[in-house]
């Protein structure tokens, strides 16, 4: 089975699904996640008796997933970096507050919903907030319950992703937020830079990715709290920081926005497709009453986390919706959500809220996972 055909068939069909408009709502790039789930389920089911082919396909899908993350996150970070200083100066500590408000809300919701098998719900908590570091912390703390934790994470992940994606498209309509007005207000609040470079420097782009991957592998240890930013967090921070720096020696990190936007869009389409292709069979083939309840619980946990974050960020911290939508996705550690937020708002400034909140959300996930494991 040619996995490249499956990938681009998923992208093709997903784009078509994303163009379907119901009133003011459409899935956009997120349509590829749904087409990936269906194609992944159908293709894998055809080879269910051939473990060698399935393992080979999953290996390819994982490589697509990792490469697409690199393209998407690096381009998003470089585009958003031009406004980083102004937004951090205005909102600063609010991003830290948002990260802990969102992760704490998810923790409390998980605590309320959890039943007799707490380890499944520990995994469900990380899945609902799409947090791989949270999963790693849980597995490290309770290695004897790996099967339950991974099972909870697996069934929690897709509903968690869908909750963030739908929220990014629907919340502006529910809360009657005028996105164009919010963009104008943001323009007045900070110094948005309009100039754009004409070139794209592959030398500098490669350095951004290399530094990001290395940075993401550093283990930050603060006593009881230990975490890594991972490839996503590392590349996002390196692209934001180096992009803000602009020029260094022979490296020029100011790159053409249109080229970066094309890389961003392709990376997102490829990322969502690979998530669907990897998750489709396990998600759709294991549907029963118990797993449907777990998926529903995950969706509820995610919605509660998002709702509390939105209420707190919009009405208490008074954060502009463009930046707040990114902060919500960062608090949920949701890369697909970031793509949906950028698409629904048609603004790359979303990524700054994401990048500033994301690292603190990882810390929150590690802390609350450890607490959840200690509660009987």
Question: How would you describe this structure to a colleague?
Answer:
The structure is a single chain. The chain is 76% helix and 4% strand. It has 376 residues and is mainly α. It has one domain (81-255, 283-374). Strand 5 (247-248) and strand 6 form a beta hairpin. The longest helix is centred in the N-terminal third of the chain and has 30 residues, at 51-80. The radius of gyration is 20 Å and the shape is globular. 52% of the residues are buried. The model has no long low-confidence stretch (mean pLDDT 85).
Describe the secondary structure blueprint for this structure.
Layout: H1 3-18, E1 21-22, E2 25-26, H2 31-46, H3 51-80, H4 84-91, H5 94-113, H6 118-128, H7 132-141, H8 146-174, H9 179-189, H10 202-216, E3 219-222, E4 225-228, H11 230-245, E5 247-248, E6 251-252, H12 257-285, H13 289-316, H14 321-331, H15 335-345, H16 350-374
Antiparallel strand pairs: 1-2, 3-4, 5-6
Subcellular location: Cell membrane
Protein name: Transport protein
Family: Belongs to the AAE transporter (TC 2.A.81) family.
Helix content: over 70%
Number of helices: 16
Radius of gyration: 20 Å
Mean pLDDT value: 85
List the secondary-structure elements in sequence, H or E.
Answer: HEEHHHHHHHHHEEHEEHHHHH
- The coarse overall form would be globular
Question: Largest beta sheet, briefly?
Answer: 2 strands, antiparallel
Distance from first to last alpha carbon: 47 Å
Name the strands of the widest sheet in spatial order: 1-2
Number of domains: 1
Spans of at least 5 consecutive residues whose pLDDT stays below 50 are none
Secondary-structure-derived class:
mainly alpha
The total strand number stands at: 6
